[in-house]
Amino acid sequence: MMQNLPFEPEFEQAYKELASTLENSTLFQKKPEYRKALQVVSVPERVIQFRVVWEDDKGQVQINRGYRVQFNSALGPYKGGLRFHPTVNLSILKFLGFEQIFKNALTGLNMGGGKGGSDFDPKGKTDNEIRRFCVSFMTELCKHIGADTDVPAGDIGVTGREVGFMFGQYKKIRNQWEGVLTGKGGSWGGSLIRPEATGYGVVYYVEHMIKHASGGKESFAGKRVAISGSGNVAQYAALKVIELGGSVVSLSDSQGALVLNGEEGSFTVEEINTIAEIKVQRKQISELATEAAFSSKFKYIPGARPWTNIAGRIDVALPSATQNEVSGDEAKALIAAGCKFLAEGSNMGSTQEAIDVFEAHRDANPGAAAIWYAPGKAANAGGVAVSGLEMAQNSARVNWSREEVDSRLKKIMEDCFNNGLATAKEYVTPAEGVLPSLVAGSNIAGFTKVAEAMKEHGDWW
Ligand code: GLU
């Protein structure tokens, strides 16, 4: 068990979520020595904290905190995004880094787990301020990363623009062009499909859930899909749902939710593109919601999340904004609205209470008030998977086509789903008429892969 911990609520939540699924399976009965591996894997190999001083447009000195948690390098260089958001602290980054270890293991690619970022808030900042911040942040971070050491990417608040500024600074200081960051621009080393990968990947994953649960009879066609968030993950998940014949009935941001007015229809591709454009300008959905084209079709609910504000049936829910965005009560409301599948595009999108509700409702009988839950570390692994493909392309000095990357992404999501499913069947005693637990299966599959590698490295014995 974890002892003498500082107060790190988000990290404790992520740790307990993983540990409880291992405890409630037959894993520790079959391999008691894995308890030791769990103790070792839950302590980061290294945590770097640094000062970021930068100058705002008024010439004032601004100070932020910078971090990189190099959590685990058993399977490859530390790999995971950078988050720029005022809520960033060590607890948040340790939870994200911990999740990333097992997520990256589930991709089947050689990547360790890490996460970093800053409490810098990009909202309301000019492009010049963002550039100066990124340069200052990388001036310190560049001492600790490298293509074979640690390869950051984006997360909340870090897009291709920020990756570009940071890459430029790394290259200047180290005098080295190397694949040290992923999510790069397409013309200078980025992979095609990387921007789309997390959102597309979640939808590819859910396609397998639907297919499996319906015995191959159903697909996204005709499904009503509730999505939260409106950033990179939510946008591309929404576009893929529409492409596959589903309807998108909600999106949201940190200030409120935008839901369809009635029980019919869907966001269109044009509407999603309009939202994507305002997000590049770091604006809120509320600014769009009052425009005639949006106010006639949608309802904007300030300060709300979509889940309990949608008229009519919900078939699929894709939380794609941030951590803890589905509560226990919202989980119950989603089941009552008919929701059969929930997959996290965000990291730790559901509270433990919500997961407990979902896991208690894994009834496979047709017509049952049941839901099947997929945790972020499996369902949103597509983003980091294509980051892994970007690293491979950079190392080989090649660029793969859209089709090549997309088909590899599809295969990785399929393998990730099948791995979680098979592992759940192996380690969790199946009850009659109940779907296998994808959270238990994915946690056990990710954990055992990392634990085995660590054992062979002499990290525990
Ligand atoms: N931030 C993303 C995640 O949570 C992507 C990380 C990466 O591409 O390294 O998985």
List the helices and strands and how they pair.
Blueprint: H1 9-23, H2 27-30, H3 34-41, E1 46-55, E2 61-72, E3 78-84, H4 90-106, E4 113-118, H5 127-141, E5 150-154, H6 160-174, H7 194-213, E6 224-228, H8 232-243, E7 247-253, E8 256-260, H9 269-280, H10 286-289, H11 292-295, E9 298-302, E10 316-319, H12 328-336, E11 341-343, H13 352-359, E12 372-374, H14 376-379, H15 381-396, H16 402-427, H17 438-456
Parallel strand pairs: 3-4, 3-5, 6-7, 6-10, 10-11, 11-12
Antiparallel strand pairs: 1-2, 2-4, 7-8, 8-9
Bound molecules: glutamic acid.
Glutamic acid binds at residues 79-81, 153, 155, 182, 347, 383-384, 387.
Task: Give structural notes.
This protein is an alpha/beta fold and about 450 residues long. Among the domains are: about 40-175, Leucine Dehydrogenase, chain A, domain 1 (Rossmann fold, 3-Layer(aba) Sandwich); about 195-380, 3-Layer(aba) Sandwich (Rossmann fold), CATH 3.40.50. The protein is about 45% helix and about 15% strand. It is built from 17 helices and twelve strands. It has helices spanning about 10-25, 25-30, 35-40, 90-105, 125-140, 160-175, 195-215, 230-245, 270-280, 285-290, 290-295, 330-335, 350-360, 375-380, 380-395, 400-425, 440-455; strands spanning about 45-55, 60-70, 80-85, 115-120, 150-155, 225-230, 245-255, 255-260, 300, 315-320, 340-345, 370-375. The protein has a seven-stranded mixed beta sheet with strand order 9-8-7-6-10-11-12, with helices on both faces. Strand 11 (about 340-345), helix 13 and strand 12 (about 370-375) form a beta-alpha-beta unit. The radius of gyration is 21 Å and the shape is globular. The two termini are about 15 Å apart. The model has no long low-confidence stretch (mean pLDDT about 95). Glutamic acid binds near residues 81, 155 and 182.
